[in-house]
């Protein structure tokens, strides 16, 4: 991992080094990260979770994901958009999630932005995928150092989301969501996931 290249694991597979050897993290790397997701609600969930991840390790959020799903009503925007001050306070007392008031309140505002977008006849999936012209951008970096933290596409999408009222959607957070949802495939060239069908 010192050079940021793909690592060989005990199962004989090469993987991107960021997932380490934690089986939970390796499963996420192998089966979710970089796999194209086109369901609007699932995309919304991943964007919100990446917002909650800001300043923390992704594995922290991943381990709390089921708690987040429970606490945030399955990340249904219609429900989250109606959260009131009492619900925000209840979430602030929930040790199973990241208890950050600004991020919780940001999730409510983002849900309202999601609904406003839908009222304009645009699906959240279409909005996200338009940023890559509807097709995954496949990169094959050799090392982690070759993977950008943000791109012109993530900057443009971030600006558009902010203009719609979304919160915690800076270009770095948006790029992480784009990677997680397979809008961008940044698996390293030597990673076994770079060769999946």
Characterization of this structure:
By secondary structure, the chain is mainly alpha-helical. A hairpin with a 5-residue loop joins β1 and β2 (14-15). α2 crosses α3 and α2 (40-53) packs across α7. The strands form two sheets. Strands 1-2 form a two-stranded antiparallel ribbon. A two-stranded parallel ribbon has the order 3-4. It has helices at residues 23-31, 40-53, 58-71, 77-80, 85-92, 101-119, 124-130, 152-163, 171-180; strands at residues 7-8, 14-15, 137-138, 184-185.
Q: If strands are numbered along the chain, what order do they take across the biggest sheet? A: 1-2
Topology, number of strands? 4
Structural class: mainly alpha
Helix content: 40-55%
How would you summarize the topology of this molecule?
Layout: E1 7-8, E2 14-15, H1 23-31, H2 40-53, H3 58-71, H4 77-80, H5 85-92, H6 101-119, H7 124-130, E3 137-138, H8 152-163, H9 171-180, E4 184-185
Parallel strand pairs: 3-4
Antiparallel strand pairs: 1-2
Helix pairs in contact: 2-3, 2-6, 2-7, 2-9, 8-9
């Amino acid at each position: 991992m010192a050079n940021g290249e793909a690592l060989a694991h005990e199962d004989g597979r090469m993987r991107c080094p960021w997932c380490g050897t934690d089986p939970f993290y390796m499963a996420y790397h192998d089966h979710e990260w970089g796999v194209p997701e086109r369901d609007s609600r699932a995309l919304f969930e991943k964007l919100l979770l990446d917002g909650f991840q800001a300043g923390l390790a992704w594995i922290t959020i991943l381990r709390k994901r089921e708690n987040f799903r429970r606490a945030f009503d399955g990340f249904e925007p219609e429900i989250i958009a109606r959260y009131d001050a009492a619900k925000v306070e209840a979430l602030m007392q929930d040790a199973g999630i990241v208890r950050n008031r600004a991020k919780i309140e940001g999730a409510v505002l983002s849900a309202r932005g999601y609904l406003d977008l839908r009222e304009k006849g645009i699906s959240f999936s279409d909005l996200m995928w338009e940023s890559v012209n509807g097709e995954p951008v496949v990169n094959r970096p050799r090392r982690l150092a070759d993977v950008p933290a943000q791109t012109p596409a993530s900057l443009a999408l971030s600006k558009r989301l902010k203009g719609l009222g979304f919160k915690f959607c800076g270009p770095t957070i948006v790029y992480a969501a784009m990677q997680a949802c397979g809008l961008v495939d940044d698996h390293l060239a030597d990673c076994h996931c770079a060769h999946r069908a």
